[in-house]
Specification:
Largest sheet: 5 strands, parallel
Helix content: 40-55%
CATH topology: Rossmann fold
CATH class: Alpha Beta
CATH superfamily: HUPs
Number of helices: 6
Radius of gyration: 15 Å
Strand content: 15-25%
Strand order of the largest sheet: 3-2-1-4-5
Length: about 140
């Protein structure tokens, strides 16, 4: 039913994956799906932002994040699950949707937290993904 599952995580927030990962692995095994794990870092190549950081800061951050993502997957995802590692740069919800479209994901599984006052005014990433992605999204509350 689902061939490609996108799983966005924040490597700095265990709550973005700890309660969701068992479900993701179950889905991948049940449907023999490919798993695409994506983490998004800020885009430091924009002139306004980049001028405040050392040269090549953005490239080093992407390299370090890629190493951390590989280590995360090696530690937490069973070897029988086919996994693609993705480090994207930009606005979190936009990059999640862009990557899902690029790989042809037919399902996004992601964590959400209990809404806080600020979330009703701005909206969390999970809500934005649900609203803007044109395929299935499974949001697992923490």
């Amino acid at each position: 039913m689902y061939k490609d599952i996108l799983f966005p995580i924040d490597l700095n927030q265990d709550s973005s994956w700890i309660n969701v990962l068992p479900s993701v692995i179950e889905y991948c095994k049940a449907f023999n799906s490919r798993l695409h794990v994506v983490t998004v870092v800020p885009d430091f190549s924009m002139p306004l932002v980049g001028s405040y950081f050392p040269e090549n800061f953005g490239n080093k951050m992407v390299e370090d994040t890629n190493k951390r993502l590989h280590a995360f997957i090696k530690e937490h995802v069973p070897s029988e699950v086919h996994v693609q590692h993705i480090v994207a740069e930009g606005v979190v919800y936009k990059e999640i949707i862009r990557m899902a479209n690029e790989i042809g994901a037919d399902l996004i599984i992601m964590a959400s937290h209990r809404p806080e006052l600020g979330d009703f005014l701005v909206g969390p990433n999970a809500e934005r993904v649900v609203r803007h992605f044109n395929r299935s999204v499974l949001v697992v509350r923490n």
